[in-house]
């Protein structure tokens, strides 16, 4: 079993696996009262196709590089929290991500009054590191914690979700750093990871997330806790089969389809007007293999470790 902070870090890494940036993939999670209120990864501005966006870092005029346009993971996590109706919960929240925030993001986090920072790696540029620490710890009163990644625990959970051992690559084909990478994980793979990692927390028996038609996670239901906010949802993911009360709550929130990832057999049924799909072991194996290989490459780029 893992802590809620560990689960949030694993979810942040899974969000990073959605990024199309071939040079660096970063994800971020905002936690408030142990609930995830915001998730983000580095990507393009709204309306810009991140699959066709070019990502040059240098060698061209500044306006043709990625730098003026890319939205960082921390910025997207803050915006996601606001869009989900958690504006008032950002103050005092915990930000969890692999890299310490850059100076620009540190300014936004300072203004947002986050309370705690959990990260794996310091920013590599010394000047930027000093600026970030000044904005957050010194001036913002943010407590921070640099942690190490338990790759053994992460792999164990992934293999538990897959239902079998995973054969992971240790030699990677180089990306074209000026183009979008194409081997990012799907939304289904990310949502499966989200509920899978949460359900591995000792105090959580089940994890359910509600997702709207834009593939944005809007709410979480942990254990028997029912939704506290109304949003129009399209579908939901659950680690295990929910209780009848939870399914009724999902129906009232407008969920028309529920996907269950840990039943280990393929079934489809109707609960009143809701379609319920239990993923097959083959589907879980495919999803977790794609996720694990993405995470293996990302983690190796961070730390030179493998899962």
3D architecture notes:
The chain has 307 residues and is α/β, with parallel strands linked by helices. 34% of the residues lie in helices and 19% in strands. It has 8 helices and 11 strands. The protein has helices at 4-16, 73-83, 103-112, 126-138, 151-162, 187-199, 244-252, 281-303; strands at residues 27-32, 35-41, 94-99, 116-121, 143-146, 207-211, 217-222, 235-238, 257-260, 267-271, 274-278. The strands form 2 sheets. It has a 6-stranded mixed sheet with strand order 7-6-8-9-11-10, with helices on both faces. A 5-stranded mixed sheet has the order 2-1-3-4-5, sandwiched between helices. Helix 1 runs antiparallel to helix 6 (187-199), helix 3 (103-112) packs parallel to helix 4 (126-138) and helix 6 packs across helix 8 (281-303).
Task: Going across the biggest sheet, name each strand in turn.
Answer: 7-6-8-9-11-10
Number of strands: 11
Radius of gyration: 19 Å
**Share of helix, binned:** 25-40%
Distance between the termini: 17 Å
**Could you tell me the mean pLDDT?**
90
Query: Largest sheet, described in full?
Result: 6 strands, mixed
Strand proportion, as a percent range, falls in 15-25%
Order of helical and strand elements: HEEHEHEHEHHEEEHEEEH
Count helical runs.
Answer: 8
Structural class: alpha/beta
Global shape: globular
Poorly predicted sequence stretches spanning 5 or more consecutive residues: none
List keywords for this structure.
five-stranded mixed β-sheet, 307 residues, single chain, alpha/beta, 34% helix, 8 helices, six-stranded mixed β-sheet
């Amino acid at each position: 079993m893992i802590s809620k902070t560990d689960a949030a870090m694993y979810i942040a890494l899974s969000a990073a696996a959605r990024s199309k940036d071939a040079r660096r993939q970063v994800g971020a999670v905002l936690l408030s009262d142990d609930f995830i209120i915001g998730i983000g990864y580095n990507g393009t501005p709204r309306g810009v196709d991140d699959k066709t966006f070019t990502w040059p870092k240098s060698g061209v005029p500044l306006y043709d590089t990625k730098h003026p346009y890319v939205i960082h993971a921390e910025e997207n996590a803050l915006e996601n929290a606001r869009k989900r109706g958690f504006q008032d919960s950002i103050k005092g929240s915990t930000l969890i991500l692999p890299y310490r925030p850059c100076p620009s993001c540190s300014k936004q986090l300072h203004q947002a009054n986050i309370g705690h920072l959990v990260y794996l790696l310091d920013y590599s540029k010394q000047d930027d590191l000093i600026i970030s620490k000044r904005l957050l710890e010194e001036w913002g009163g943010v407590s921070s914690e640099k942690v190490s990644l338990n790759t053994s625990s992460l792999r164990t959970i992934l293999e538990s979700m897959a239902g079998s051992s995973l054969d992971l690559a240790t030699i990677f084909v180089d990306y074209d750093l000026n183009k979008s990478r194409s081997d990012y994980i799907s939304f289904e793979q990310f949502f499966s990871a989200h509920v899978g990692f949460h359900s591995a927390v000792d105090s959580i028996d089940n994890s359910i997330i509600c997702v709207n038609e834009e593939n944005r996670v809007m709410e979480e239901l942990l254990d028997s806790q029912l939704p506290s906010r109304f949003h129009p949802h399209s579908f939901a993911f659950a680690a295990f089969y929910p209780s009848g009360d939870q399914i009724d709550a999902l129906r009232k929130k407008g969920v028309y389809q529920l996907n269950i990832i840990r039943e280990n057999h393929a079934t489809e049924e109707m609960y009143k007007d809701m379609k319920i799909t239990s993923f097959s072991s083959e589907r879980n194996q495919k999803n977790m293999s794609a996720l694990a290989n993405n995470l293996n490459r990302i983690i190796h780029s961070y730390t030179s470790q493998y899962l």
